[in-house]
Structures are given as C-alpha cells and as structure tokens.
C-alpha cells in the first residue's frame, strides 16, 4: 500500500498514514487503503492492540480538497447512500473500522486532526495527543455536516452542547480543551511513544480478556438504558473467561512472579 503502512510487531499492529507531505489528507486511495488495513486485522488472532498514527507534522488534515471536485460531479445519493460496509458507506467505514475491531486501538495525534481525520481518531479506543494539537469538526467550512461516522461515536464521548458547538462553528480546539471535553484521553509530549507503550502493556494482558472487555464496553454503550441486559452480558462474558487457558496462565504467572506467556 502506497498511502498506508501496516507493520505487526510483538502482537501490536502499527498502522500509519503515509501522506506526510500532504498532512495525511484523505485521498480516495488513502481512504480505501486505510479501510483495507483495518479490515485485514479483523480476523488476526495474533494481534492484541493497534497503534494508529500519521507520519510527519499532522495526524490527518481531513479530506483532500481535490476530492470535492470529483464528488461534486457525481450523484451524491448514489455515492453516499449505499451501505457498502455492513451498516456503513465507504467514508463512514474509514472511521468506524477502528471502533469495530475486536482489539483496543490507540491513536497518536499531533499537529491537526481535522474533519475526517478527527472522525478517524474518534474510532479509536484511546486518543493520546501532543500539546497544542488542534481538533475540529470542520465540515461546516465546506457547507457540509460530519459524515464519516462521527455522529455514531461522538455522543458516547462528549456532551451534546460540545458536539453542537464544534459542529456549528467548525472552530478548532486545542488538545488541552479537547481533553477536558472528553475527546482526548491524555496529553503526551511524544504521543506516538506513549501510544506504543500503552499498546505493549495491553499486549501483555490476557488476549481473551482484553477482547471480551472491548466487546462488553461496546455492549454496555449500546444498551445503556437497559441495566438488566448489561448485567446479564457482564456475567456471561465473565463466565466464558473463568478457567480458560488465558486466565489460568495469568494466575500461574502471578503466583510465579513472571510475565504471562499466551498462545498465538
């Protein structure tokens, strides 16, 4: 892939946007390659965490402006309405694929995360940003609304008034404010190093428990108004872990004061 790098080391997948000279602006090719990278990890049992980053001075500046002319010459209904990726279209899948992955995704942000780039970051489980990183729901600048999965993800992270302010104005907010609003998890001088360190830590935990935890959190978010269903799913997920090989290895490792060694 020319626009996306995918490397797997020590059970961590490193996915990097590689259009640094263009601030990783989303060309059609980059969108398709990024989705392909994410989807290639769906069935990878050896992958335990993902680090998502952008090369150069920016995470992602949003949609490449060259795309707007192409889109303007097409039937928008035919381009946008088909559900080509389950419940999503192509542009929504580029952000949602990271949310759909069964393992944790940590996004490392620097420079800017604008428009589609911000929505891709929202698909991650954790967002670590460099000081001063700017984030924006920028679609209103082009007379549009956020349409890359952001509205399926934002309400789980931020208050309604925050979402409305950012959507209506398009104003960038710095990472420090975004952290206070729940859109950034933490600030780090070197977000990529911090993301890699966190991914390595996660990769050392029980793989089956980590996958079960991500699935349970997603279930709890989707059924937040049904405590009975969440409690039942919590018990079901726990029962499926107890006494299984990963859990028994964790117990043995703790008793022997060593790092656990998992299969796969």
UniProtKB/TrEMBL annotation:
UniProt record similarity statement: Belongs to the enoyl-CoA hydratase/isomerase family.
Print the keywords alphabetically: Fatty acid metabolism, Isomerase, Lipid metabolism
Q: In which pathway does it act?
A: Lipid metabolism; fatty acid beta-oxidation
- Which Gene Ontology molecular function entries are recorded, alphabetically? isomerase activity
Q: Name one Pfam family in it.
A: ECH_1
Gene3D superfamilies, per the entry: 2-enoyl-CoA Hydratase, Chain A, domain 1, Lyase 2-enoyl-coa Hydratase, Chain A, domain 2
InterPro entries found in the cross-reference section: ClpP/crotonase-like_dom_sf, Ech1-like, Enoyl-CoA_hyd/isom_CS, Enoyl-CoA_hydra/iso, Enoyl-CoA_hydra_C
Question: Which GO BP terms, alphabetically?
Answer: fatty acid beta-oxidation
* NCBIfam families reported for this sequence: PRK07509.1
Recorded source organism is Salinihabitans flavidus
Q: What is this protein called?
A: Enoyl-CoA hydratase/carnithine racemase
């Amino acid at each position: 892939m020319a626009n996306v790098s995918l490397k797997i080391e020590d059970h961590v997948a490193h996915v990097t946007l590689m259009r640094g000279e263009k601030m990783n602006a989303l060309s059609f090719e980059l969108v398709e390659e990024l989705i392909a990278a994410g989807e290639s990890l769906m069935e990878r049992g050896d992958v335990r965490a993902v680090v998502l980053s952008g090369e150069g001075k920016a995470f992602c500046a949003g949609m490449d402006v060259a795309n707007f002319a192409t889109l303007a010459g097409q039937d928008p209904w035919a381009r946008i309405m088909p559900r080509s990726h389950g419940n999503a279209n192509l542009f929504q899948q580029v952000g949602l694929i990271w949310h759909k992955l069964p393992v944790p995704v940590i996004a490392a942000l620097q420079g800017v995360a604008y428009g589609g780039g911000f929505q891709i970051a929202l698909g991650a489980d954790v967002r670590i940003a460099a000081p001063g990183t700017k984030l924006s729901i920028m679609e209103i600048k082009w007379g549009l609304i956020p349409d890359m999965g952001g509205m399926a993800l934002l309400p789980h992270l931020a208050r309604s008034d925050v979402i409305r302010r950012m959507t209506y104005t398009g104003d960038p907010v710095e990472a420090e404010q975004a952290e206070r609003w729940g859109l950034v998890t933490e600030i780090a001088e070197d977000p990529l190093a911090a993301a890699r360190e966190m991914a390595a830590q996660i990769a050392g935990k029980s793989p089956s428990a980590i996958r079960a935890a991500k699935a349970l959190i997603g279930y709890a978010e989707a059924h937040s108004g049904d405590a009975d269903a969440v409690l039942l799913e919590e018990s079901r997920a726990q029962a499926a872990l107890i006494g299984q090989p990963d859990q028994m290895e964790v117990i043995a490792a703790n008793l022997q004061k060593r790092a656990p060694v998992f299969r796969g």
